[in-house]
Amino acid sequence: MGKSAYTVTKASTERVMAKEMHRARFTPGAALFRPMPNYELRALRERLSLTQAQFAAIMRYRSAMRISEFERERNPLPIPEHIAFIARVIAEDPVRFIPSGVGEPTTHDPFAA
């Protein structure tokens, strides 16, 4: 077998990654793909007036515990890229993705006589 004309090295990989990151900064919609810190997920969920259980159901998690693990301040779990992407898409057009009645403030007072 012949020798490859191009050898992959750490430096060449870093150059390619830097080029891709630079290109992503100037690509429309690239902000949807950036990593999401835990406080951003919490703020987004609260802005949509969703509980952790409601948000977990929308994200197809069986339990609100996973959302709680993403949002906690101490030692949070890293938020998977697909969850960050879906959360940002939902935040851009909540009417399209959140069923009516979910996350809307209620006028029901549970403590009323």
Q: Name the quaternary structure.
A: single chain
Question: pLDDT average, as an integer?
Answer: 76
Can you tell me the residue ranges where pLDDT is under 50 for at least 5 consecutive residues?
106-110
Total count of strands? 0
The CATH architecture of the domain at 34-97 would be Orthogonal Bundle
CATH superfamily of the domain at 34-97: lambda repressor-like DNA-binding domains
Tell me about the largest β-sheet. Answer: none
- Order of helical and strand elements: HHHHHH
Q: How far apart are the first and last residues' alpha carbons, in Å? A: 85 Å
Explain this structure.
- With 113 residues, the protein is mostly helical.
- The protein has a domain at 34-97: 434 Repressor (Amino-terminal Domain).
- 50% of the residues lie in helices and 0% in strands.
- The protein contains six helices and no strands.
- α2 packs parallel to α5 and α3 packs across α4 (65-71).
- 12% of the residues are buried.
- Mean pLDDT is 76; it is low at 106-110.
Short structural summary:
The chain is mainly α and 113 residues long. It is built from 6 helices and no strands.
Break the fold down into its secondary structure elements and pairings.
Layout: H1 10-25, H2 38-47, H3 52-58, H4 65-71, H5 81-92, H6 94-97
Helix pairs in contact: 2-5, 3-4
Q: What features would you highlight for this structure?
A:
113 residues, mainly alpha, 434 Repressor (Amino-terminal Domain), 6 helices, 50% helix
